[in-house]
Fold this protein.
Amino acid sequence: PKSLTIGLIPADGIGCEVIPAARQVLEHLSSSHQLKFRFVHCDAGFEYFQKNGTALPQKTVDTLRNDCDGALFGAVSSPSHKVAGYSSPIVALRKHLDLYANVRPVISTKDPQNPSQKSVDMLIIRENTECLYIKKEQQFTDENNQVYAIAERRISQKASERAGRMAFQMALARDSIRQQQPVEQRRWTGKPQVTIVHKSNVLSVTDGLWRETIRGVYENTPEYQTRINLEEQLVDSMVYRMFREPEAFDVVVAPNLYGDILSDGAAALVGSLGLVPSANVGDTFVMGEPVHGSAPDIAGQHKANPIAAIRSAALLLENIGLPGPASNIYNAVDATLQAGYKTPDLGGSATTEEVTEAVCKYL
Ligand code: NAD
Ligand code: MN
């Protein structure tokens, strides 16, 4: 059997509940798929910081980089006030491992109890390394003693180009998976489509560079031009259209901040943040990560929905060359939801453990 070493970084809050759930599903999968997983626990997070003075020990970075074929991250808590010496380990990990795109599939599951649910099957690609998240902020006081603050926003040609290229490649990959499905099961029946999100009518220099660079990638790659439709949407109208007609979008590529906001918003379309997975993807490493945070309001109560983390494990497999086992997990998750196993965020009363057991049962 193929042997894979997966780094597990549960970190804080419900991260410590949903990552073990994802691990359980992977272990269950391995017995039936000629796969052998070895799991390595890695430390990180705010709790770890409070005990040890660092949120991301060097050992975690080294272990992931040198010993692991991929990783799964849970969630971190960030203090609401500034704590000296603390900075988010997830932002640092994305940087250390050069995970330059955050890939977020938002997919609705047909729900017999909710026939009015909109049909959503889109992939949001969020640039992961720059924009306002470079965190160059400063506070000043002007000559009239008025306090103001300025944040720098970085958009580079290089980061825009590789985010764009990933969007086009993933649009093609989604298309080839669709081609294997019976036509009546496909939600997207046309040519693959990539939508560039920007606000270059106002931010003509930064978002202008983003838009022009991605357009350039498209125009210079004949395969993209013949096989993909390129669209664009201003970020504000993107939000509007995404809620009105989510079925109009296939792959969406956005700068870091817009991508963060859009994908949390898109989670509302499919019922809960607890359902939406993501993967941080670079050229040499992939780290799955549920979109949600550490949810301190429900931590330790067996209420956390494990599906976002379980789907993140599937997305990890998909992005390290194992689409078959990944799709088995997706199908088992759909079966679990359709059978009515739901945690409280979806209006049910199942526990984290019951939902996880059900996914294993349907695998
Ligand atoms: P959150 O995603 O933790 O929670 C938002 C709401 O959704 C809460 O009501 C929570 O109970 C619910 N929720 C989230 N995940 C759920 C799940 N799997 N099952 C059931 N319900 C779920 O966001 P927040 O409340 O804004 O932030 C809480 C903490 O998480 C903060 O410290 C924040 O900084 C951090 N955070 C971390 C990440 C990350 O690790 N990437 C992302 C967002 C927020
Ligand atoms: Mn977010």
